[in-house]
Amino acid sequence: MFIQAPAFGGPLKNRELHLCLTLWERGVARGGATAPRPRGGAGTWCAAPAIKSAVGSAARSGGGGRAASGEINFSVIGRYVDYLVEEQGVKNIFVNGTTGEGLSLSISERCRVAEEWVTEGRNKLDQIVIHVGALSLKESQELAQHAAKIGADGIAVIAPFFLKPWNKDVLINFLKEVAAAAPALPFYYYHIPALTGVKIRAEELLDGIQDKIPTFQGLKFSDTDLLDFGQCVDQNRQQQFAFLFGVDEQLLSALVMGATGAVGSTYNYLGKKTNQMLEAFERKDFSSALNHQPTQINHLTQNSIGKQFSLPHSVFSYRKQV
Ligand SMILES: CC(=O)N[C@H](C=O)[C@@H](O)[C@H](O)[C@H](O)CO
Ligand SMILES: CC(=O)C(=O)O
């Protein structure tokens, strides 16, 4: 589940929450007045965080994500969509990201996972954003074109992390080339420096980004640097970008800083609970909101942040406790 708010700075009901695996949107009708408009794309959509793959997660949990042969068990995706919608209240999905272990899948597996989510989510989910980042620009472009072809609602890209971009311009040029391969899809930059090792501040990257990437729609910010995050929000007030926060344990703080949504792994199983936190935040009941947030902190920080985001472990060790 993730939370994301499309409209910048608006009340929470105008925010869109995206959970990691799930994108979850509250109170914003698809195509509603507050939804960000995709640039160059057909139709209106609510800002999407990325969805992490339920498939990869399930694999770690022994829940059937991968069959014993090591193949992905695509057949669980349909049921998983129903679970997210009905039991967690999550209707937006970020596919093939960190939780989905997109970087550990082959290109054909990534395409197939994306197809399954789009097919199974049709008429049930609001938004499906596909993470298409890769070390190879060509592969990333291929995945972006594929996402457009199957009717995804957006694409997201991390920084290449082996031969790394050494400055902002190099990174932007990479992102631009990927975005150009799917010119009708809203584009998100997925900032996750602890895993990519690319430490270029998001605030620096966003400066003038739309001149280079006209489809730029927002940022998925998976870092604990709330100063950087706050500056991103503050310096782009006119842009109607989506600011999707990706450290679930800090979501409440990020909401205060102006997050418009969230994308996170824990929303797969804490969707309902997080919705309660969002509701409390919306009605300015911060004490109650805080009561919902620490539950995650207690169980997750040591496992996840403390171990530099060794996510699947943290997610599933926690899931066993809830
Ligand atoms: C590294 C990673 O996967 N981060 C996720 C989002 O980006 C988060 O949702 C974390 O899994 C979550 O905050 C638990 O630590
Ligand atoms: C959590 C998240 O955003 C991801 O799995 O990519």
From TrEMBL:
Look up keyword Flavoprotein and say if it applies: no
**One GO location term (cellular component):** cytoplasm
Top EC category: lyase
Kindly report the protein's main subcellular placement as a broad class: cytoplasm
Organism superkingdom = Eukaryota
Keywords from the named record = Carbohydrate metabolism, Cytoplasm, Lyase, Schiff base
Q: Which reaction does it catalyse?
A: aceneuramate = aldehydo-N-acetyl-D-mannosamine + pyruvate
Question: Which locations, inside or outside the cell, does it occupy?
Answer: Cytoplasm
A molecular function annotated in GO for this UniProt entry is:
N-acetylneuraminate lyase activity
EC number, as in UniProt: 4.1.3.3
List the pathway annotation.
Amino-sugar metabolism; N-acetylneuraminate degradation
Q: Does the keyword Lyase apply?
A: yes
Against PANTHER family, the record matches this protein to: DIHYDRODIPICOLINATE SYNTHASE, N-ACETYLNEURAMINATE LYASE
Family indicated by similarity: Belongs to the DapA family. NanA subfamily.
Q: How does it assemble?
A: Homotetramer.
By what name is this protein known?
N-acetylneuraminate lyase
Species source reads Delphinapterus leucas
Question: What is this organism's lineage?
Answer: Eukaryota, Metazoa, Chordata, Craniata, Vertebrata
Gene field: NPL
